Structures are given as structure tokens and as C-alpha cells.
Amino acid sequence: HLAEKYGVKGTLSREEFDARAKAWYYAELLRDERKRQKMTQQELAELIGKKREYISALEQGHTDMQLSTFVLIANALGLRFSLVVG
């Protein structure tokens, strides 16, 4: 079904879909952890030097998250992660 709707794996349209899906997934993880810690979007924004509206847009999938922003948010939430390349 994915191939019919988003293209065959390896095509540009499928790669774009996969990238959006992964971005949404990681934004959800960060949002869930923020909420688990009972931290507001405003508090998180202040910790990382961004505006609350930016945090909201990230969590809703309205903007792409740069790796540097992901690291800032993860650190602010006290999370550890590993990056595997290859």
C-alpha cells in the first residue's frame, strides 16, 4: 500500500515520505517525554533558547527539526541517545 500511495522504495517521493515519518516519530518521542516530565512548551523553549511557538510547530510536525535542535531538546530533557550511521 505504501508503494501505491508514496512511491516505490528508493524513489524521491518515497524517501521524502520516510523522512517526514521519521521526523514525526522523533518529535512525538520528545513531546511525550516533555509531558512525562510535566514540562510546558514554554519551559522547554526557555531551556533551549527558542520560542514556545517553535516547540509547538515541531511537536505538530509543521517544521523540520535540525539535528542540533534535537540534541538541544534531548539534553534539556535529560535524554541520552546514540546515532548510528550506515
TrEMBL record:
SUPFAM superfamilies per the UniProt record, alphabetical: lambda repressor-like DNA-binding domains (SSF47413)
GO molecular function terms listed in the Swiss-Prot or TrEMBL record: DNA binding
Gene3D superfamilies registered for this protein in UniProt: lambda repressor-like DNA-binding domains
Family matches, as CDD domains: HTH_XRE
HTH cro/C1-type domain: residues covered: 30-84
A Pfam family it matches: HTH_3
Name recorded for this polypeptide: Helix-turn-helix
Organism listed in the record: Xylanibacter ruminicola
Source lineage: Bacteria, Pseudomonadati, Bacteroidota, Bacteroidia, Bacteroidales
